[in-house]
Design a protein that fits this description.
metal-binding; alpha/beta; membrane; five-stranded mixed β-sheet; GalNAc-T
């Protein structure tokens, strides 16, 4: 009697334990499996249809509207494939650098041009100034009177001065192309980069000499830059190659994570670099430009430009500045310090992630000397998954000249029109007809 009761209790315990383990197994399967049961196939099919509908919707609306061709379609496929596995828009944190802002350059009282002020010429200097003006199409006498390390006023908006930027950011290499540039403007550009860039973020400065003919830009320049507190190298083209190919030479030697292109007659203002890199570290497919202030070609006074304009173009494919429309101000919540999405950029001054620069295809080597490369790069960015922005808290001054002092093999008009037509053919699809209608003598 006792033995039979014992066996009955044992069987109940075994059955209860088995049921418990079966229940646990079912819960584990439900947790790690998307679906269970006869409806699983239908649900899976439904998910597949959903993805297919997304692809159809994307291809039917976005692609034609943006004018993407087969190359861009391949990029889109790769983007969708990559997005399933990893985020390729960010940097691994161990590759980023801590930084601290540079102190402002102290004003040297009594010296010419300090605080960004202009130089007043004496009457007896006027004749020689006009004579030498033709060499560079700016007042070289005034430039040579100004210190290479001159101070500037902090012209940023008040809110910009108190903005907080990421504590870890990528490094940048500065690429500056020059051809027969004046000594003082070239070296003032270099010193403004050194004096106003966080040292840990400034990897190097690369000066690309595009077949200059002036003696002081030879060994004298190499000896001088060897003494600078930041690694600075002089690269030289074998023959006159033009801005586009010279920049490609510089980009090939970049070791920083970000390439920052500058012209050879600029002055970087306080806090110019941090706002640019702060946008790229958030998304390495963001291409950023500073507000380009004006340095007078006559007095070298530093004049702050408006932050209420963005880059556009007309149907002759000439770059133009236009007033920022209300819709963009609304997108920025009326915050004038917020990044401004711009249709195109001026092209002389911008920062771009090095890997993304080559993912885009870099510059079109079929374009000659100068002209149109800014629109071509702008179209590349927008049509290949990137974002192009002007950063109002970043300011760089630039010497604007009425005309170029450089020669263009074949003539300026021929080269510029050739480049513009190439932009239209490659990137504008049927919209290129507007360009040809405005330029009937081309093609």
């Amino acid at each position: 009697m006792f033995r039979s009761k014992f066996r009955l209790h044992t069987c109940k315990i075994i059955i209860a334990t088995s049921l418990l383990w079966i229940f646990i197994d079912i819960m584990v399967l439900m947790y790690y499996t998307d679906c269970i049961g006869p409806n699983c196939k239908a649900k899976s099919s439904s998910v597949g249809n959903s993805e297919s509908n997304f692809d159809d919707q994307f291809d039917a609306t976005a692609a034609p509207r943006m004018g993407w061709g087969p190359v861009q379609d391949n990029m889109l496929d790769r983007f969708k494939h990559n997005s399933d596995h990893s985020d390729d828009t960010t940097y691994p944190s161990h590759l980023l650098m801590r930084w601290k802002p540079m102190p402002p350059v102290r004003e040297k009282r009594g010296k010419h041009g300090e605080g960004g002020r202009g130089v007043t010429m004496k009457p007896e200097q006027e004749a020689i100034m006009k004579q030498k003006f033709k060499e560079n199409q700016f007042n070289i006498i005034a430039s040579d009177m100004i210190s290479l390390n001159r101070s500037l006023q902090d012209i940023r908006q008040g809110e910009c001065k108190s903005k907080q930027y990421p504590t870890l950011m990528p490094t940048t290499s500065i690429v500056i192309v020059f051809h027969n540039e004046a000594w003082s403007t070239l070296l003032r550009t270099v010193w403004s980069v050194i004096n106003r860039s966080p040292r840990s973020l400034l990897k190097e400065i690369l000066l690309v000499d595009d077949a200059s003919e002036r003696d002081f830009l030879g060994k004298k320049l190499e000896d001088y830059v060897a003494t600078l507190p930041v690694t600075t190298k002089v690269l030289r083209t074998v023959k006159r190659s033009g801005l586009i190919r010279a920049r490609l030479l510089g980009a090939k030697h970049v070791t920083g994570q970000v390439i920052t292109f500058l012209d050879a007659h600029c002055e970087c203002a306080d806090g110019w670099l941090e706002p640019l890199l702060a946008r790229i570290v958030l998304n390495r497919k963001t291409v950023v430009c500073p507000v380009i202030d004006v340095i007078s070609d006559d007095t070298f006074e530093y004049v702050t430009a408006s932050d209420m304009t963005w880059g556009g173009f007309n149907w002759k494919l000439n770059f133009r500045w236009y007033r920022v429309p209300q819709r963009e101000m609304a997108r920025r919540n009326q915050d004038r310090t917020a990044p401004l999405r711009t249709p195109t950029m001026a092209g002389g001054l911008f920062s771009i992630d090095k890997d993304y620069f080559y993912e885009l295809g870099s510059y079109d080597e079929g374009m000659d000397i100068w002209g149109g490369e800014n629109l071509e790069m702008s179209f590349r960015v927008w049509q290949c998954g990137g974002t192009l922005e002007i950063i109002p808290c970043s300011h760089v001054g630039h010497v604007f000249r009425d005309k170029s002092p450089y020669s263009f093999p074949g003539g300026v008009s021929k080269i510029v029109l050739h480049n513009a037509a190439r932009v239209a053919e490659v990137w504008m699809d049927e919209w290129r007809d507007f360009y040809y209608a405005m330029n009937p003598g081309i093609g």
